Amino acid sequence: MPREGLNRKLYRSKKFGSWERSLAMDAQVAAAGKSVGIEFRYDLQTHTPNTFDSHRLVWLAGNSGVQDPVVEALFRAYFCEGANFPTK
């Protein structure tokens, strides 16, 4: 994954064989999430990020004893709110 990430539709179409298959997989995850009170908002995502820096942040948070809330915040921002954390 390049540092700046990739267009989500292009990346997932190639990774999963088609955009339709990617959407079907997202629908399955969204249904599972909904059953436990999580609203996945894949419709807000246009970009697939490079997660290297997020993993570094999670590791650092673990060293400070706050790994779980940091992971929760990152996941909620990306999967539920459609946030994109651009890199430079």
Q: What does this protein structure show overall?
A:
With 88 residues, this protein is mainly alpha-helical. The chain has helices at residues 8-16, 19-34, 52-63, 67-80; strands at 6-7, 47-48. It has a two-stranded antiparallel sheet. It is globular.
Layout of strands and helices, then pairs:
Layout lengths: L5 E2 H9 L2 H16 L12 E2 L3 H12 L3 H14 L8
Antiparallel strand pairs: 1-2
Which tags fit this structure?
two-stranded antiparallel ribbon; 2 strands
Residues in β-strands, percent: under 5%
Low-confidence stretches: none
Query: Strand tally, please?
Result: 2
Which word captures the global form? globular
**Share in helix:** 55-70%
Biggest beta-sheet profile: 2 strands, antiparallel
Summed over residues and divided by their number, the pLDDT gives a mean of 94
**C-alpha Rg (nearest Å):** 14 Å
Number of helices: 4
Terminal Cα separation, in Å? Answer: 14 Å
Main β-sheet, spatial strand arrangement = 1-2
**Structural class by sheet pairing and helices:** mainly alpha
SSE string, helix = H, strand = E? EHHEHH
